[in-house]
Write a structure and sequence with these properties.
Layout lengths: L7 E3 L4 E3 L7 H17 L3 H12 L14 H27 L3 H14 L4 H13 L3 H19 L5 H12 L30
Antiparallel strand pairs: 1-2
């Protein structure tokens, strides 16, 4: 019978917990994040969706929700939360390319409401609504974003979101199949679904 690996190692002034590589959800999440990024570089949207969904399923509520964090731990929690949100945006982007806009509506609607200053999430939600034949709601989402950005930060939506809005208004056929990339000739080449300004 194989001897169980020692879990608690003692030092001269401390204890150290020894774990298997995938014993902690955080380690598994980090590994899947790296695998998903490789799939992104390879242009494999199905793999991106599968891997990132697997990583996101490891989350059960907020990070370290049952711990009262000090300043250093709070910084770590914030970093993990930001990484998770970024992974979700990248997963949505891959799934929009796969034509899964109907399945994303509820999730994107809830997240864009929770992060009203996040232009990227709102852009993804607008595109999913538009592709689901809900043009009026897509335009309403843009105007909500525009209003909250003006009230909170005194700024207009970024160029790529404005181009998406114009494409929805005009029924640009490229929105049916593509992510928003350079909708107007002669203007800066942009992609509406790449990370926008950080939400606050």
């Amino acid at each position: 019978m194989k001897r169980a690996r020692q879990r608690l190692a003692t030092g001269s002034r401390s204890y150290r917990v020894v774990t298997e590589p995938d014993a902690l959800d955080l380690a598994r999440f980090t590994r899947l994040l790296q695998e998903g990024r490789v799939a992104q570089r390879n242009g494999d949207d199905r793999a991106v969706s599968r891997i990132f969904r697997g990583a996101l399923s490891l989350w059960r509520g907020e990070a370290l929700a049952d711990v009262t964090p000090g300043p250093h731990l709070r910084e770590r929690v914030d970093s993990l939360t930001e990484t998770r949100l970024g992974m979700m945006e990248q997963c949505f982007e891959a799934e929009l390319r796969l034509g899964l806009h109907h399945q994303l509506l509820s999730e994107l609607g809830a997240l864009s409401a929770r992060h009203p200053l996040n232009e990227n999430l709102t852009a993804q939600y607008m595109l999913a609504l538009y592709r689901s034949s809900r043009q009026v709601e897509a335009l309403e989402a843009f105007h909500r974003l525009r209003r909250v950005l003006d009230e909170e930060l005194g700024i207009e939506p970024c160029l790529r979101v404005r181009l998406l809005h114009e494409g929805i208004l005009t029924g640009d056929p490229r929105l049916d199949t593509d992510l928003v990339d350079g909708l107007q000739p002669g203007r800066e080449r942009v992609t509406a679904l790449r990370p926008a300004r950080q939400s606050r």
